[in-house]
């Protein structure tokens, strides 16, 4: 690859890293009055990144490189990935970018006011405006008659509605009876979380222990506090996680850290030879989420993991956990109950929250659902899928910020993450029969090494589903996920789960 | 001013802010392994900033604006300041930038090795190479026969050797007998600093108290820890200070914080209408230093300030300060003694360290002193000015990092800072007769408000000396500084000081 193209890749990668630094800092250390200045700085950086990306000379260099025939396979992948990113940017009219930024500002504002007023009506006009702009965007970026595909492509390159809908529909139809069967057992939530205070300094220290336990490299990353936990990578050697500490809800810090550590291990795992190139990237948000969910849920809510760590947790919180044993703790952190709020949902009910949103998003983009009917459609599905009725819109259609940003196409990546996580974990168990024994003695290196080789170090060589197929022999499927739920929750709840 | 030029000013300002963010983060929160990645990111940002600055379209726009005749006085100043910055960048050959960066890397490396070996000889070849490049730079940027002027211009725009040398020479000749007179009193250093431990958490809390006391706005800035304290501003609403905590040396944190707070108040004080323009900047490093020295020394080592704060300090460190009263503390923090290390020098001897360096720098740039003779020239002056002989080069010519970076022309800005601080403070005392009474009751707002109006909010409207002249009625002078020393140390040491 010629040095000019390579240096432009480095420049784009460095700009991306600096944008992430400025965004990270905004959430953790920015002085209150600096918010407008930071917004301007980020806007300038985004504009520079965009200018370099759509530069016609970059287009020519990519075209020449693509035709040259003397690229290595990795270089071909770099050209492919950057060409795709560039074309999406070129096809996005500047006028639309400006209009969307303004509409997002209004959307957030209206959403906040609507939540305040507990009424969707206040949000509806802003949402309709965003929807119109996203339809325009979809048409500008191109699709085969399914606008949603063009938006999905922004988060899950290569995924299509035609492929996704049957999988999520089957998943939904399997989960509804499973949730009902578990709900019929009527087990109360764990008492050890009720009205006790968990010292936040000790929570922090325990999250640091967990980071070390899963092998997050604290010399190539760090953890800080923020209101909403997130992962932000400026480079494979500079991966920043956040968690939050709440004296009344210690699991929020523990599982929040494990979740972000899963993202973080992925970002730290990019290959040295991919650094500062388009291959040092995750192929999709769904695959990114598969790694966070794998460590948070398939490992972090598993008995083997806590067989090793629970004694230290009891030692950290001797009073709160005095009467709790490992099995009680394991049952407690895997309590299943239909609930209204997605971010508080357990791993059995969670995907029903996603399918609900996906179906509504698709109907909106297809003009099959008027924006005004969104709350009733939400509540109707909430009844059908989880048997619940939101008391007001803040606990229903207004609960997530995504639509206030006009972000359609993002929600399904959460479900994809859960499904990919289960498939990758099942493949890991097949490849590493000693895995649980290793976890029981606190050794996560076997699993981490396998994931590093199979997924992390591969970067963006392949699209997400192709990467999963290369590892597991099969692409997107709900089979492994459902098998995992049936085995785990059947045992925990003493019932035979079908579906 | 046309909108294109204005938007380019905003862009340059935003890039500058982001460069500062990345540099700040490198010193306080960067994971160890990320240092090379951060160096690349900073290099990319510097290259982008340089590219935009030397862009011929910017040159044309500035020339047009300068000739247009319909600019406000502030806009004229913006054009003047940016034109000067641009011309210096244009006149800096790219080849020289690259060669300097490489030579700086080698300089730092050789300097570290030389310090390790306690021998200047190891450093000499790298220093000679840097000196040759800086001579080239001076010739490229232009001068009237005095190369040092071209380097000084990088830190102290408008200042010239011809103006500076007589002032520093007179200062030197006044200080040498004053130091000797104070040394003859033979007062031991304060015992309250000997072998006691000052809890570092309490030190931190006291530095936060001091920040609030001087009016540093913690909603438009923050304080963190770093190995070497510094101030770094990304915007007037985002000014970041650092301090360091050492259990054995509590004054390091207290006066370090006061020093950086002085810098910080300046950066926070730029006028709203100057934001994101070349006027939201200090006119020189000397004037910047005047503000840090004013708060650290003229206020922070003064009796009125501690009349208010000493009781709280005693409360914070009751055991260490049990036997110390306000007068003892005031005498202790103003102990004068010739010493070998500049950064540990008191305010009477400090400027002799600077004059020594300035004279050697000037001789090097003028080819009047071979690099090989630098250590002997250093030691000879150290004997003449302070009566001391360094036991080895690490306590002599190798003590500062500045020359290892090839930074000639920076040292005199420290002395300029001390002189400007004294002149500005004398003017403040004339304008605000109640100043000491206000400080005694903990009110710094009178002084801060005056400095804000006279200096901070003026930004880069005028060069440093012209700004000082506009405030005090006189430009650079050693008179106010010497008067301040004579009055303060004459009283503290019970001697009559001449000079």
Description:
The structure is a homodimer of 499-residue chains. Chain A is mainly α and 499 residues long. Helix content of chain A is 62%, strand content 3%. The first copy, chain A, has 20 helices and 3 strands. The first copy, chain A, has helices at 3-28, 35-54, 56-68, 73-90, 94-117, 124-141, 147-152, 161-183, 200-214, 250-268, 285-299, 303-316, 326-332, 350-365, 374-386, 411-431, 435-440, 445-454, 464-472, 479-493; strands at residues 221-225, 231-235, 238-243. In chain A, α11 (285-299) crosses α16 and α14 crosses α16 (411-431). The longest helix of chain A is centred in the N-terminal third of the chain and has 26 residues, at 3-28. The N and C termini of chain A lie far apart (51 Å). Chain A binds chain B through residues 10-11, 14-15, 17-18, 21-22, 25, 29-34, 36-38, 40-41, 43-45, 47-48, 217-222, 234-235, 237-239, 275-276, and chain B through 10-11, 14-15, 17-18, 21-22, 25, 29-34, 36-38, 40-41, 43-45, 47-48, 217-222, 234-235, 237-239, 275-276. Chains A, B: Zn(2+) binds at residues 259, 263, 289.
